[in-house]
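User: Structure please.
Assistant: Input sequence and predicted structure:
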Amino acid sequence: MVPALIAAALTATCGATIPRGPLPAWRSPGLIGGLGSRYTTSAVDPALAVGASYLPHSSVIALRDGRALLIPSGSETPQILPMRDPQVTAAVHSDRSWLASGQIPGRTAAERDMAARALLDLRLLTGPNGASAASWFGSWNYVWPRDAAFTAAAFMVTGHVAEARRILRFLSEAQNHDGLWAARYNADGTAVADGRRIQLDGLGWVLWSTWLLHETGSDTGDLWPMVRQAADRMSRSLGRDRLPPVSSDYFERSPAGEQAPHRPTLGVSAPILAGLRAAAALAADRGATDRARRWRAAARRLSAAITRWYGPYGYPRSPVRNGNLDASVTFLAPPFAPPSAEMDTAVLSAASKLRLPDGGVLPGQNWPGGRTEAWTPETAMFALAAAASGRSAEATGWLDWLRAHRTSLGVLPEKVDDHGRPSSVAPLGWTDSLVLLALHTLDHQLPRAG
């Protein structure tokens, strides 16, 4: 009853201001943006989203009554305006001009539509200082180095290099003097002090993303101190078993809950390997031959150790017999590593074991959360691995499933429930980034370091 009354009040007055009270994470099907306000966003009230849609290639919403919902220039609040209002025209033009300044990947109109929405959502989630939030709601509204690194990579491959640079500059300025990053950051660059453990996979992903920026032909000299500190830290951290230290990874849980609590997960080891290879390639191009040699040697030691400790068991999450598989096996496949028949087998095996009956995947066999909800980032990881490994039909299948399970506004959510409905936050930046990378890779293979 209350949503109906709100909707009635809003449709009664032209230019009405939208209430901005808190909404449950799963209820909003997307974000509102507008001209000059791409850094001011608001969740769409579900009552207003019924029968609504984004105007093509914009973050302005066409309501079912024919008016437009946006955040006008200079405003902090969403408003409803006539569709012919100059502010609506200007906002749509701004969004379309930004998209046109780069490339929208995709082989079909439907794929390009998904890609355009993902790009615009990443733009809405990224502030002027490069703080790129995972999503808009509650505990998601922070910057994770891992997620932000992938957002930067997605901006790079779609031609939005300035946005990518801002994200990496933000991460460079947030980096600790010991080369590490906190698990997550506030939008002002301060670390979130909530007791979360360091997540070492972030180091590898930031270095991989920085090297990818270098591969676009951009000058990365200002980011070199960040690379040097992080890669030195990673290369020195390899233990007697030649694996990195134990830490949390994208599962964000205590290592004590793993099958091998005193060994790193593949979700840590594989990104560190990708980061060392990327840092070595970047150092070689800069003429830093000593560091290039040292980091390349560390990468070789780590690669051999991963083969030794994880390989005999099919590359599970923890290096133990009968270890549970998870989506991090894709981090050992292209585009992050050279192609191999062994890794193709491991990736396909993991996908088969993690796939749910209605499509999509669980993050891992031992995932402690809901066992019937598919997670879109992990599903997109398999799409990217398939695209980068030349399995185009498989990649397209994963991407079609993701496209079919967006919100009513066409936004990619974090999860999809067992009834096929989007759940949790929407958009999720990591999913947006991985989908864009996969779509790009279907036609343009990403470079590989090492």
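Strands lie at 31-32, 42-43, 53-54, 61-62, 68-70, 79-81, 374-375, 415-416, 422-423.
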